[in-house]
Backbone:
């Protein structure tokens, strides 16, 4: 933190709330990039990875902060403590049993989105103090270094690649290259 940073509980909560808003906006932008939803859902559905962790890695990297293996592990484990995955599984079950047009399915989507936002808050609260102290931002991180960081997450926690995964690296690279050009409005 800078020397003039407010380290009081109120100051910390305010800084964290500001970070939550920035992360949420950036995550929505990353997801909306052409190919973003497809890459994220592939990582989630085929490799059993947490999309919020991928989006967090991307967000921090776009700010010049590449997560190392230890921070990736910490963020992944913290994200696993939250119930977003259970809510997602429930939503899928409702869709399969009642259909996507059922009002209960729409409610499940709303609850899942709220759980995703809570998960992001938990990720931020866990990693925030460490990265605020580190101040290790690197200007001009390359898209390839960001792809490598996401691949580290895939290698650490993803399930084995399945047939037809050959174009994942290409799709991931294209997505990251587009994301690093976004104006995240920080």
Residues:
């Amino acid at each position: 933190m800078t020397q003039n940073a407010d380290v009081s509980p109120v100051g910390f909560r305010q800084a964290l709330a500001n970070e939550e808003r920035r992360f949420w906006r950036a995550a929505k932008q990353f997801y909306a990039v052409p190919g973003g939803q497809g890459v994220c859902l592939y990582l989630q559905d085929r490799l059993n990875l947490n999309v919020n962790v991928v989006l967090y890695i991307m967000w921090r990297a776009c700010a010049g902060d590449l997560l190392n293996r230890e921070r990736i592990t910490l963020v992944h484990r913290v994200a696993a403590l939250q119930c977003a995955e259970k809510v997602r599984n429930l939503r899928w079950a409702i869709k399969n049993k009642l259909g996507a047009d059922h009002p209960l399915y729409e409610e499940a989507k709303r609850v899942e989105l709220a759980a995703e936002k809570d998960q992001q808050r938990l990720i931020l609260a866990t990693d925030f103090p460490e990265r605020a102290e580190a101040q290790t931002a690197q200007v001009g991180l390359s898209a390839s270094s960001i792809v490598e960081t996401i691949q580290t997450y895939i290698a650490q926690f993803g399930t084995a690649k399945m047939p037809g995964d050959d174009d994942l690296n290409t799709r991931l690279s294209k997505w990251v290259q587009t994301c690093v050009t976004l104006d995240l409005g920080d």
In short: The mean pLDDT is 82. The two ends are 17 Å apart (CA to CA). Helices lie at 9-32, 36-45, 51-62, 69-81, 84-98, 103-134, 143-157, 168-179. The chain is about 70% helix and 0% strand.
